[in-house]
Design a protein that fits this description.
GMP Synthetase, Chain A, domain 3; three-stranded mixed β-sheet
Length: 144
């Protein structure tokens, strides 16, 4: 059996690197969108994602999603000014209720349990990771 430290695998993974870059980009886009949208609509933005040149804006309530659809052409123009490098040319609005966005615990499902061996491996892997976000996630998983 080939054994490698989890930290080495994750740090050398092009997939993990790409996922982290995408996550950071989406966090930046979400922050900019919240800044550009008027209160209280900005509070209803759950998350954003960018597919090609289409910004997918997830809103937590159907009523607020409708309002977001009404102003989406203006949002495209404002995003082009604020983040021209993103190249957003269209906005798609989706309803994403908080329970679905928050995961199984918010939906009333029990949290998954981690075995002692898995918890030990996750904790050891987290110590080898330099990225603070990945380290935090691994430590959280190990503590379940």
């Amino acid at each position: 059996m080939n054994t490698q430290a989890l930290g080495a695998i994750l740090q050398d993974s092009a997939t993990v690197t790409r996922l982290l870059a995408t996550g950071r980009r989406n966090q930046t886009l979400a922050g900019v969108c919240r800044d550009l949208l008027a209160f209280p609509l900005s509070k209803h933005v759950v998350s954003v994602n960018l597919h090609d040149q289409t910004l997918v804006l997830n809103i937590d309530d159907p009523v607020w999603a409708t309002r977001a659809r009404l102003i989406s052409p203006d949002l495209v123009a404002r995003l082009a000014e604020a983040l021209p490098a993103a190249g957003v040319s269209d906005v798609r609005i989706r309803v994403s209720p908080p329970a679905a966005a928050a995961g199984p615990a918010a939906a009333g499902l029990p949290a998954a349990k981690v075995s002692d061996a898995a918890a030990t491996a996750l904790a050891a892997g987290s110590r080898a990771i330099s990225d603070p976000d990945i380290k935090e996630v691994l430590q959280r998983l190990a503590s379940r």
